[in-house]
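Below: protein 1.
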Amino acid sequence: MMQNINNVTEFVFLGLTQNDELQKICFVIFLFFYLVIVLGNLLIVATVIFSSRLNSPMYFFLSYLSFVDICYSSVTAPKMIVDFLAEKKTISFIGCIAQLFGVHFFGCTEIFILTVMAYDRYIAICKPLHYTTIMTKRICGQMVAASWFGGFMHSLVQILMTIRLPFCGPNEIDHYFCDVHPLLQLACTDTYIVGIIVVANSGMIALSCFLILVVSYIVILVFLRSRSSEGRRKALSTCASHITVVILFFGPCTFTYIRPSSNFSEDKTVALFYTVVTPMLNPLIYTLRNEEMKNAMRKLWSRKIFFSSEKTKM
């Protein structure tokens, strides 16, 4: 039985780089990235909320995906950006555990929402006549609630496993945020069993959801073979954005969590894809390839300009 002996009150991040000049450049780049993430995803959320035309389940799920992206990046990005200018990149033990919880809570919730979005596309394309009866507002709400609950339970398991580990030192984490694998490397006990549980928990969730997504899109592609070229083109255009996001998010995520804990320093570079790059690209991917979204944004923008000009005249 593991004793909860903890001589470590704080952890020190080694960050992405130790080069001072490179850190200043990274500060500017990642600050810009984070602003794009927040503003871009907020724009999608606002557009879906205020546009009466974007009332389908697809946009309902997209608004929640954008909200989760903001929360997910906000758990790691602000701390990473501040640390680029900090002489010593420290985080308290409690802060580290809180960050670990947030990363897995929002990350797992995003995995489930992306899976739900694939199911929505499957029903819309393969069973169009039953779409409105299957994907009701109540069912969509329950799916989103189940995604949040699943993310919470997954994160709770990660916390309960990690917080019981004894940390006697050293306290340097070769990463830019607190994650399970780097913390297992610092624990002063045998973490083999915990590592297996982490792979079974995090890795299998990512891999199984990814396989479900792959199968669903294979079924969709097979089904589209019998459709007209115009119908096929329209259906593929709605799926292409989602497939792109799935590949960008699930690829690095599955690579990180499907294998046992190891001293793989490139993990932090891989982690940038699912904590920063994908949340930043999501607004661009879903808007540039979606005429409905672009038209709704134009109308929302023109409406705001109209109201602001009316107020100035009064």
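Below: protein 2.
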Amino acid sequence: MRKAYMGVRLRRLREERNLKQVELAQALGISASYLNQLEQNQRPLTVPILLKLNAVFGIDVQLFSEDEEARLITDMRDAVAEGGESIALAELRELAANMPAVGRTLIALHRRYRDAVERGDVMAAQLGDDWTLGTRVRQPFEQVRDFFYARRNHVEVLDEAAERIYRDAGLSPRTIHAGLVAWLRGKHGVELAVGEAGPVQRSYDPATRLLHLSAGLTLGQQVFQMATQLAFLELDEAIGTLTVDPILIDDEARRLARIGLANYFAGALVLPYGDFLAAAEAEHYDIERLGEIFGVGFETVCHRLSTLQRPSARGVPFFFVRVDRAGNISKRQSATDFHFSRVGGTCPLWKVYEAFAQPGRVLRQIAQMPDGRTYLWVARTVMSSGGAFGKPGKTFAIGLGCDIRHAGQLVYSRGLDLSDPAAATPIGAGCKVCERPACPQRAFPPIGRALAIDENRAAPVPYPVA
């Protein structure tokens, strides 16, 4: 942990609890003068004091962490990217470190602005106008993405419920299909009916208590769909409570969030938290080995690894993405500070896209962002057929990444020099916000910045001009 000067946050904590300096110092077991030095940023906040804050006030130490600060900086960079004025990274870092509440307010105001733009665009469309107030509409699926991102992709109440049902139903990795069929029948009177393959994978009739599954699903996919339906049967109230969130601003977003939470529960039931974390650590996070142990696919393991952030038993904080050949990101989950910009798109130097050229092979990359933070990425393709000759199938590249300081815990770091700066590939969060002017893959200049071009010099222009 680097030296953390968090005086403003300490003063805010004290003011929120209506405590005097002497009272807070006594609660933390330190002198009033030492606390005063901490609040004046004359001394850094230490780990023992952070742990004491957690013990006395129940404060999550993550709120004072470098990761939390980096998350805030990333979100603020998105918020100010459309402001028209260039703000240095150092200024944003100072704001995140000393006045995080101001930073979060800035992000909230930007979100409200985007929502206002969306409403204006909708009204313009209804009136038949051919203009819009902005360039981007915050779609319901993006609201749901923000909903999970705000929770670090971890929903404790669903993880606990999944472990309880897994235990009560006597499930195991190799008996989970039969066990879920028996649990649905015995607990809810629901019978399973597997019909012809079709576009609808799962449908439930409450009147007849029949759960229809497509015959085109594998046994593992049937298990996931049964577990998803079980979430609606047993945890409907809890899921409904979770979706009452200001991030979800419309009914469609809340409906999507309900499905997302049910899917989260399904993954947690197939891969129960405690058992899965223990196996992941024992196997050094070997994705394919974990898939063999629990009988699931590469993507399912990666998705679950990105959720292991229980405060009392944290796994490696991973970032998970799923992309197609066109660069569309259909899934994006982050357990910590990293995420690609909502404004900038993605980077062609990112190893995830190279996976399409080497299908089925696990690729590795040490990648460094413009702010100097370095990550280890693992990528591989996953695919499924269309079910019949001539029907197109699906192919995606799955990416799983973590901060370089956690990379030593992964089997994928073997043979890599994690301490060599030259081993890292410089990538960015997309050309619109990336600050690398000399990148050979740059498609256009950053938002709000002009690129100095001299027509009398033969220097190549790093993005298309015609």
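The longest strand covers residues 374-384.
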